[in-house]
Model the fold of this input.
Amino acid sequence: METRQANAVKGYFGEYGGAYLPPELIPVMEEIADEYETLRRTPTFMEELQEYYTHYVGRPSPIYYAGNLTEQIGGGPVYLKREDLNHTGAHKINHCLGEALLAKHMGKMKLIAETGAGQHGVALATAAALVGIECDIYMGQIDIEKEHPNVSRMKILGARVIPVTTNTKSLKDAVDAAFEAYLQDPVNQFYAIGSVVGPHPFPTMVRDFQSIVGREARSQFIQMTGRLPDHVLACVGGGSNAIGLFSGFLEDNEVSLHGVEPSGKGFKDGEHAATLTKGTPGILHGFRSYLLQDKSGQPLPVYSVASGLDYPGVGPEHSYLKDIGRVKYTTISDEEAIKAFFALSRTEGIIPAIESAHAVAFAMKLAKENTEKTLLINLSGRGDKDVDFVLRHYGKGYL
Done:
């Protein structure tokens, strides 16, 4: 199966992607695309980025055999790609460093971004401090209250955290607010999008920066086990951690790829964020993808216990991979994710981000059904940010 044909048309993955923008932003995005294409082929830029990955982030992140969890499940062996061990605690630092270095090379004065769970915000604030650029982070008021430890980290790192109190006060509204602020000065600001979403070139650019996860994982798994994994899994909100891991295995058709979305409290409108499972093609935030929308094309309210997954759209490459059948997209509920959160914590001593726990939860089901098959999960982030929230809302059932 040919999975890369979508890149034949610039900025599109099949019918998805593109750049649906106000006229004044078109030359700005074209400049970013041109500068990125130049720099990604410039040895000094890529060497500088790799130096940071190695000596600052701590790459390569290891693969760990979760033997205790595997034994508890009673199924196939489960392995974890430990992106939670990166500096800042998640995969987000991979593309934030790339975007910050690109902004610096372009002479931008400020990085601007949205964040949901706060991991992108922390990573971007970290990268901004490193390269010496100002940083504004827009965050929904609900997420500020839920992810307070990450808010504190962003402030300590020197970023300005701007609460968003409109509409649902969550990730979609933070994106709206950040985009409005960016429109006020797109010449001196750089909108560092936090996932494989947005107008071209961001879905491609963020994927390229995250592809280091897949390249490492493929090589490490073969070295560790002598073969490729049978199943590769990752949670999907916007989709950056998933596409980063999947990119290393897309051409290996014998490897099954699974994207895990949040079904939240159920499949009523406003109670889930399962975009690929329940959505239809539409346009949001400058790109075309699957979208949770009403009959008039307006985005529906979304929800997930994981702040980093409650977005009504999804990366255009994921939309394409769904349509051609290369990736299977499934769902996990809040309850199942929290159960997996505690299971991994208590069997392996690894507290996962709630986002990552969605992938762990589906892996636990899949492993039980496939006792002879190997599973590789992208443990995309650690759960430090979530512990207070989990204990407050779910502790009674587990403590």
In short: DSSP finds 15 helices and 14 strands in the chain. The longest strand covers residues 256-264.
